[in-house]
Amino acid sequence: MPSMDASSEARLYPSITISRTMQDPNEVARKFSTTPPHKIEETPRRVRGLFDKEYVFDTTHARLVWEHPYYPLYYIPVDAIKHDMLSVDRSKEKGDGAYQAVLKGERKQTDEVLIFEKGPLEGLVRIKMDALDSWFEEDEPIYVHPRDPYKRIHILPSSRKVTVKIDGVTVAESSNNMFLFETMLRPRYYLPKTALNWQYFTDSDSTTRCPYKGIANYYNANINGKEYQDVLWWYRHPTRESALVEGMACFYNEKVDVFIDGVKEDK
């Protein structure tokens, strides 16, 4: 699903309100220069970051840092970053011992970088996820944020009848579905595209990214003269762990009326 802005957080975590200050590097620096984050863990995974056609780091000593309870970010040991690409601006102290830094390649640079020189994150570097061109765990791309090792996706086939209505109009119905259960989130119901009443749908230009499922494409619905934007999505090439929903369509439960074996779901 989407990159981590306000709208993407709402899509990734529709039942959770995440503090916007935790996305502000100045607030992160001020808070975590003295106060430990929610959780810090080592990881044995090889983590790489691609920036301006170079791997700016390649390490098996990254840290998973939960700035809040909902998902982690990777913090990178300062010794793992190419020193000729990293510079610290000592005039821009953002917290006690936390400084803004710059990653500079041959063609571009970014200052979405914090270096912690003391405190609970001493020796670690926070690089905003979308400041780099790509992140990799081992040889697999990371979307939006690292996958939380304490969360999982479980996809089960289900013959329960799923009916989807918008403004009283039945737009999809199927008894050959995949139910996707994701830790902390409500269930999602993936239907074959043949179950859609296509006269109501048009392509959307929207694409979003999800760390657990991959890159999603969207459809709009047009019902009784009203357009419902991005009301359902599908994955052309999902991640391996979500391969069972490849090519299937899923509606936002919060935006439509969903009936499971005739029983209407709460929104």
Strand order of the largest sheet: 1-4-5-9-8-7-6
SSE class:
mainly beta
- Summarize the helix and strand pattern as letters: HHEEEEEEEEEEEEEEEEEEEEEE
Fraction of helical residues: under 10%
Low-confidence stretches: 1-21
Gross morphology is: elongated
- The rounded distance between the terminal residues' Cα atoms is 20 Å
Number of strands: 22
**Averaging pLDDT over every residue, what do you get?**
89
- What does the main sheet amount to? 7 strands, antiparallel
Beta strand %: over 45%
Rg: 21 Å
DSSP helix count?
2
List the helices and strands and how they pair.
Blueprint: H1 6-12, H2 25-32, E1 39-42, E2 47-51, E3 54-59, E4 63-66, E5 73-77, E6 86-95, E7 98-104, E8 109-116, E9 124-127, E10 134-137, E11 140-141, E12 153-158, E13 162-166, E14 169-174, E15 177-182, E16 188-191, E17 201-210, E18 214-223, E19 226-235, E20 249-251, E21 257-260, E22 263-264
Antiparallel strand pairs: 1-4, 2-3, 2-10, 4-5, 5-9, 6-7, 7-8, 8-9, 10-11, 12-15, 13-14, 13-21, 15-16, 16-20, 17-18, 18-19, 19-20, 21-22
